[in-house]
Amino acid sequence: MEKGYLVTVVVLIGVTVRWTVSLNSYSGAGKPPMFGDYEAQRHWQEVTLNLPIHQWYFNSSDNNLQYWGLDYPPLTAYHSLLCAYVAKVINPDWVALHSSRGYESQAHKLFMRTTVLIADLLVYIPAVVVYCCRLKETSTKKKDKVANIWCSFNIFLKIKDILPRHIQIILSFCCTFLSLLPACVKLTLHPSPKGFKYCLVSCALSFFLFSFQVHEKSILLVSLPVCLILSEIPFMSTWFLLVSTFSMLPLLIKDGLLVPSVVTVMAFFIVCATSFSIFEKVSEEELQLKPFSISIRKNLPGFTFLPRIIQYLFLISAITMVLLTLMTVTLDPPQRLPDLFSVLVCFVSCLNFLFFLIYFNIIIFWDSKSRRNQKKIN
């Protein structure tokens, strides 16, 4: 009974936070001719409702792919179609072919926000609750500019001006494949639930950092598996989630969402600091780095300062993110460098993500070695 009560309270808080944030502005509000991601979602409802399935993904007189062409997998398209049926019942003008482009109203905003909340209640939140309950049972038994490599490297060398497009694609593929290969090989050779979760993080981060075309919000695809290990390495997971939100700072400012994002980030940080005691869980064991440190100490006996280094890196990272946020909000960039702050946010975030990619791969690699050594001892 107590557990069910706690779950109910947490879910209600989560829903309340979501709905409170949804009262704020959205991407592209009042900004013709393309508006923004909000219009993309609305337009996909228009397309899927009014056109036959075989025309959804192809350019035609009724489906101009240059205007928010449907570029998500079919499951997303069917979800848009389902929402479109409901929208047509409420107000056909919301999804009328062609004439509904750029449609904006408070009633429609309420409808769009509600579809997201209902999807969360039906799919995402139940999945999180089931995972957390399962995690509890298992532990009891056992007692922006996108912040990826290419945008960041573009600061120093304009790759797109030097290499042909097809070479860029090949280079991107090779880097992505090689960066996720070690984690996948380790998981294949030594499968485990723990290894699977960390491999999810590593692979998602590899795709974000090295893929040819990435949206800044794609970092959320990395943040989701990081949430799965929040209870295992709370300090590093909290740090990563803070950086992931910071990396979207230019987008959040553009869409008028700076205040709600700052408020929710501060609330998240306070909850993690109090509930998970993140600053107390920075030992080698709690950072999952003891096997790695032991292997290093075979050659360097004095290598006992890794947790302290990570704490200093976190402090530097946090101070940098705060300063860049304040500079972006309060200062005007030089006329010669209008994108200065956006580029700095991108570059700083990318450096953090590279560090996390190395960190998670160290855990994956040395965890399998540690388990093999334990088997030998047993």
UniProtKB/TrEMBL annotation:
The UniProt record lists the EC number as: 2.4.1.-
Membrane association type: Multi-pass membrane protein
Transmembrane as a keyword of this entry, yes or no, is: yes
* EC top class, as a word: transferase
Q: In which pathway does it act?
A: Protein modification; protein glycosylation
Q: Which residues form a coiled coil?
A: none
Recorded catalytic reaction(s): these are: an alpha-D-Man-(1->2)-alpha-D-Man-(1->2)-alpha-D-Man-(1->3)-[alpha-D-Man-(1->2)-alpha-D-Man-(1->3)-[alpha-D-Man-(1->2)-alpha-D-Man-(1->6)]-alpha-D-Man-(1->6)]-beta-D-Man-(1->4)-beta-D-GlcNAc-(1->4)-alpha-D-GlcNAc-diphospho-di-trans,poly-cis-dolichol + a di-trans,poly-cis-dolichyl beta-D-glucosyl phosphate = an alpha-D-Glc-(1->3)-alpha-D-Man-(1->2)-alpha-D-Man-(1->2)-alpha-D-Man-(1->3)-[alpha-D-Man-(1->2)-alpha-D-Man-(1->3)-[alpha-D-Man-(1->2)-alpha-D-Man-(1->6)]-alpha-D-Man-(1->6)]-beta-D-Man-(1->4)-beta-D-GlcNAc-(1->4)-alpha-D-GlcNAc-diphospho-di-trans,poly-cis-dolichol + a di-trans,poly-cis-dolichyl phosphate + H(+)
| This protein's UniProt keywords | Endoplasmic reticulum, Glycosyltransferase, Membrane, Transferase, Transmembrane, Transmembrane helix
What transmembrane ranges does the database entry give? 5-26, 110-133, 219-242, 257-279, 300-328, 340-366
List the protein's name. Answer: Alpha-1,3-glucosyltransferase
Q: Which gene encodes it?
A: ALG6
What family does the entry list?
Belongs to the ALG6/ALG8 glucosyltransferase family.
**Biological role:** Dolichyl pyrophosphate Man9GlcNAc2 alpha-1,3-glucosyltransferase that operates in the biosynthetic pathway of dolichol-linked oligosaccharides, the glycan precursors employed in protein asparagine (N)-glycosylation. The assembly of dolichol-linked oligosaccharides begins on the cytosolic side of the endoplasmic reticulum membrane and finishes in its lumen. The sequential addition of sugars to dolichol pyrophosphate produces dolichol-linked oligosaccharides containing fourteen sugars, including two GlcNAcs, nine mannoses and three glucoses.
The protein's location, in the record's own words, is: Endoplasmic reticulum membrane
